[in-house]
Every structure is written in structure tokens, then in C-alpha cells.
């Protein structure tokens, strides 16, 4: 199943967000892959600082792994540059697919 959601980046943090994801922790990548998450892309709308994420799932959503130590650590690491909930998880908003073309 393919899902999409949006998140919000704080103004002025595009380069830092990209840098942190370019250097994604190997243990975080492994966690995602082990839980069936693949083909994961995040796009930025610079006009609104909205991040659009799309991922293929064969199991859990990346947001469903919040009880894991590594994801909690990643969320804390990212909390200074994104809009977050009280537990540092990014505020996410599901998006409905209205068109798809293979």
C-alpha cells in the first residue's frame, strides 16, 4: 500500500533538513526497511514549508514505529526544525490519493 502525508518544516531550515536526511542513521534506515517501508520520498513546497511524504508500506507506517528507541531519538533530533507534538513526533496529516498512474 502506498500512503502520503504532510508535515511542516520551520522557516529557514531547508538545508539542515536535507543535510540530516542525507546523513540518515543506518539503524533508522534498517528499522524502516525491516518494517516493510520502502520507496520513501519527501518533497518540500518551499512556498509554504510543507513537507510531502510518500512511502510504500508492507506492514507498518513510519509513524507507527514511534515506540521504538531509534525513532524516538530521531524525532528528538528533528524537533528543533519541524512542527512537532508534545512527544517530539512530527505533526503529520494524512493525504488522500485522488489520482494514480502507473
From TrEMBL:
Gene: rhaM
Molecular function terms, GO-annotated: L-rhamnose mutarotase activity
Gene Ontology terms: cellular component: cytoplasm
Lineage: Bacteria, Pseudomonadati, Bacteroidota, Sphingobacteriia, Sphingobacteriales
Pfam families assigned to the protein according to its UniProt record, in alphabetical order: rhaM (PF05336)
Domain of life from the UniProt record: Bacteria
Protein name according to UniProt: L-rhamnose mutarotase
Swiss-Prot/TrEMBL keywords: Carbohydrate metabolism, Cytoplasm, Isomerase, Rhamnose metabolism
Organism annotation: Pedobacter alluvionis
Family annotation (InterPro entries): Dimeric_a/b-barrel, L-rhamnose_mutarotase, Rham/fucose_mutarotase
UniProt GO BP: rhamnose catabolic process
Keyword Nucleus tagged: no
Documented EC number(s): 5.1.3.32
Signal peptide: none
Amino acid at each position: 500500500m502506498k500512503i502520503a502525508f504532510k508535515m511542516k518544516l520551520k522557516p529557514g531550515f531547508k538545508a539542515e533538513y536535507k543535510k540530516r536526511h542525507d546523513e540518515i542513521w543506518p539503524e533508522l534506515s534498517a528499522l524502516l526497511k525491516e518494517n516493510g517501508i520502502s520507496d520513501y520520498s519527501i518533497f518540500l513546497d518551499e512556498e509554504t514549508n510543507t513537507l510531502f511524504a510518500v512511502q510504500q508500506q508492507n506492514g507498518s507506517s513510519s509513524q507507527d514505529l514511534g515506540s521504538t528507541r531509534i525513532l524516538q531519538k530521531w524525532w528528538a533530533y528533528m524537533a528543533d526544525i519541524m512542527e512537532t507534538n508534545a512527544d517530539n513526533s512530527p505533526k503529520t496529516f494524512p493525504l488522500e490519493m485522488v489520482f494514480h498512474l502507473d
